[in-house]
Structure formats: C-alpha cells, structure tokens
User: Which sequence fits this backbone?
C-alpha cells in the first residue's frame, strides 16, 4: 500500500509539473497578445472575451465531470496573473502631441501609481510638491495635463494657488470628493476640466476592472483621450454628476468608514481578544474583522478628512446614530415582532440584490476560508 501511495504521489507531482509548464506557455502567449493590443491601441481588459472564455470552460468542465466552480476559480486566478503580466508592457498612447504631464503631489502613493502608468505609456511626467513649488510656473507653462493628487483637505487650496495654465491644458484631480474641487478647478482654469475619482487604493498592481469616476467639467471633447487612456489601462469609466457622486460617497466612504472606526474603537475599549475572535470566527465575520483591521493599518488623517469632508456626511452619520438608538430600544424591549418587520422591510427594499450579494459573497467566503491557518 505504501508503494502504491508513493506511485500515485509521483504521478501527481508529474502532472503538477506539466501544469506549471502549461501555465508558463500561457503567460508567454499573453505577452504576445499584449504586444498586439499595444500595436492596435486596444484596452488591456476585454470583458466580453473573459466572459465567453469562462462560459466555454464551465461547459467543458461539466462534460468532463469536473466542478464548473472549481474550473472558474482556477481560470479567474490565471486571468488575474495574466493581467499583472500584461500591465508591465508598453501601452498605446492616446494623446497626440508631446504629452507633458505635471502631477501635483506626484510623490504621494496615488501620484506615484499614475506617474508610473503615464511614464510606462510614453508620456513625459514631472512632479510638483511642497518642496518644489517654486518650479510650478515653469513646469505648468509647458504642461498638456495638470493632475492634482493631494490630501482632501489641501485640494481646493492647492488648486487656487496654481499659476496660469496654458489655454488647452487639461486640469483634473484625483480626489474622493468632487463638487468643491471641480468648482475650484472651473474657477481657476478656463480651459478643459474634468474631475476624476479612482475608486481604488494606490496599492493595486494595475487598473484592470478598476472603476474611475468621471465628473464632467468643461470641454469634454478635449479630455476624451484621457478617459480612453484609462480604459486602455483596463479601467471602467463611470460618468456621474459631481453632486450625485458626493452623495454616494457619503454612504460608501464616510458612513462605512465611520461604522468601521466606531466598531474598532469599541473592540479596543471592550478589551476584545483578537486572537480568540479570529480563531472562533466564521468566514463572514473574519472578512468583516479583516476590513475593520485594514482601516486601522492606514493613514488616520486620510479617514478623518474623508469622514469630516462635508456637513452632509456629518448629518448622515447623525441620522444613523438616531436610528441605532431606535433599534437598540427595539432590542432592549425584546420586541421580536418589530425586529422581524424591520428585517423584512429592508429585505424587500434590497430586492434581487439580496440574493445577488449572497451569491457573490460565497466566492469571498471561500477565499477567506482557504487562507485560514
């Protein structure tokens, strides 16, 4: 029996080696595809192609008696590695001209990310910071694009301090709030303006499948090339009015971050045993705990700025606080009927999204469980 076990294991090792060779061959082909895409000016990410490949392989898996979910999981992981490989290549440049890019705050993490992408694509990138602000007039005088990538609480102030920009120079920002920066840019510069918000952190390896919000400012025909460049890098552009964006961010960022902040403060002040919580947690709670812990691994000034960036955020948090008080009273009195009624009302409001989120979360829960030690 020991001999049979060893034999089986040797065969598995040989098959694993064959899989590795096939993976390397696939990545080599991906590099060829990247070169062709670059020559044709095609985007890094082709959603229709990915969807068709996954469907085809799931159908093939069924015919072979394999789990379609297993095959899809493997494919998506391979795709992610392929996108990382593609992102190290040279991208097609959409701007016609020199392409002088000045990034104000380019030494920050987000500024560095976009500096790398522009440079990799063939643009000439220069950065401006507090220590080099005396160079601003000379650099901006020859700029085709000026990008503001500074902390939220400094954005409007920095925009107002900009020296005159060339008439056709594009002015944009990467701030997570849009109304006030967009208004400041439109007032400071009479040329093309667009407000951008990358809906991701600076630690992403590439922009594949990432969302970049675009808020129209002035002369949209003059900044379409920039949106196209973002798409070539793999991003999805989501156009939205600045006021609608900021209202959504009040929920997505301010309220969510405040809730995580409050929960973390409560854990700390209750002297919770994190090792024990992790050991006893289900995958879903482990994910929730990870997201809370992730917040406290980052810059506190950034989250203070996000949460306190507007009176609308404060009012939303206060309404949330009042509703918490009402729900606490409901639980305190043991009113299960009212609890279930509230639950059902929210479930109805979510509609089909509830089941959709249930299905999508299963993949995340599997990953959380797979990474468990």
Assistant:
């Amino acid at each position: 029996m020991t001999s049979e076990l060893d034999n089986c294991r040797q065969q598995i090792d040989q098959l694993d080696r064959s899989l590795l060779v096939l993976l390397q061959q696939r990545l080599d082909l991906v590099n060829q595809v990247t070169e062709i895409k670059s020559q044709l000016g095609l985007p890094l990410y082709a959603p229709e192609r990915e969807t068709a490949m996954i469907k085809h392989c799931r159908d093939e898996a069924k015919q072979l008696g394999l789990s379609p979910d297993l095959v899809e999981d493997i494919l998506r992981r391979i795709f992610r590695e392929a996108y990382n490989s593609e992102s190290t290549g040279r991208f097609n440049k959409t701007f016609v001209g020199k392409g002088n890019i000045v990034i104000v705050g380019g030494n920050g993490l987000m500024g560095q990310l976009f500096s790398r992408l522009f440079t990799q694509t063939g643009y000439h990138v220069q950065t401006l910071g507090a220590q080099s602000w005396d160079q601003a007039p000379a650099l901006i005088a020859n700029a085709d694009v000026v990008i503001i990538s500074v902390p939220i609480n400094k954005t409007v102030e920095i925009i107002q301090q900009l020296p005159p920009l060339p008439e056709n120079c594009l002015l944009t920002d990467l701030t997570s709030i849009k109304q006030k920066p967009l208004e400041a840019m439109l007032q400071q510069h009479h040329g093309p303006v667009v407000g951008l918000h990358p809906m991701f952190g600076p630690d992403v390896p590439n922009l594949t499948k990432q969302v970049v919000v675009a808020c129209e400012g002035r002369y949209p025909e003059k900044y379409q090339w920039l949106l196209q460049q973002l798409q070539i890098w793999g991003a999805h552009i989501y156009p939205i009015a600045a006021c609608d964006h900021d209202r959504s961010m009040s929920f997505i960022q301010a309220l969510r971050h405040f809730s995580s902040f409050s929960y973390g403060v409560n854990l700390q002040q209750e002297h919770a045993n994190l090792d024990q919580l992790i050991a006893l947690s289900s995958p879903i709670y482990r994910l929730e705990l990870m997201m809370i812990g992730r917040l406290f691994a980052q810059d506190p000034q950034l989250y203070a700025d996000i949460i306190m960036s507007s009176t609308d955020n404060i009012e939303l948090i206060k309404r949330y606080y009042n509703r918490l008080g009402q729900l606490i009273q409901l639980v305190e009195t043991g009113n299960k009927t009212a609890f279930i009624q509230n639950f059902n009302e929210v479930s109805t409001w979510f509609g089909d999204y509830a089941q959709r989120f249930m299905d999508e979360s299963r993949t995340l829960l599997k990953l959380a469980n797979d990474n468990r030690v």
